[in-house]
Write a sequence for this structure.
């Protein structure tokens, strides 16, 4: 239990359309936040698909929980990217050794803010890749992408009646 399939955004709240300026008549609907999770290891040195986000979704956060330390000798980097290779977020850097067990600090890519705000009019394949400048050893992580379900054009609210 726990998985649900539905089309389009869920709109939650009691007032779908705004009819005034008083609480109870002002729109109070919002879209559902959901997650998809995939795993990776030190052997994920080529892009591996971890999620497919629905068209129009807004990425709100990406979590990387390291379950086994990535102990590369001269740096460790985990990149979360689109199938086209556009970086959405990174963990670590060329100078980071090792990536320790725990929730890693994830840096969302500000240069790709448009993709984070709206993944586009078609579903977005999200991949993960691990890189190490030196000798890699150990390493396993769970990557969770949190996003808001929206209409395929990125809108969150229905058109007013």
């Amino acid at each position: 239990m726990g998985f649900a399939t539905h089309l389009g955004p869920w709109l939650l709240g009691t007032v779908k359309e705004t009819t005034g300026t008083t609480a109870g008549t002002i729109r109070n609907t919002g879209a559902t936040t959901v997650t998809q999770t995939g795993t990776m290891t030190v052997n994920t040195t080529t892009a591996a698909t971890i999620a497919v986000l629905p068209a129009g979704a807004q990425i709100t956060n990406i979590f990387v929980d390291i379950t086994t330390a990535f102990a590369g000798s001269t740096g460790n980097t985990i990149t979360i990217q689109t199938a086209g290779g556009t970086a959405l977020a990174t963990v670590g850097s060329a100078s980071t050794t090792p990536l320790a067990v725990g929730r890693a600090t994830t840096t969302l890519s500000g240069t790709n803010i448009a993709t984070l705000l709206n993944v586009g009019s078609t579903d977005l394949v999200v991949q993960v890749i691990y890189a190490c400048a030196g000798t890699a050893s150990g390493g396993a992580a769970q990557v969770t992408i949190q996003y808001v379900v929206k209409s395929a054009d990125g809108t969150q609210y229905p058109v007013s009646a």
Remarks:
- Residues 80 and 128 are 5 Å apart (CA to CA).
- The domain at 32-148 is CATH 2.60.120 (Jelly Rolls).
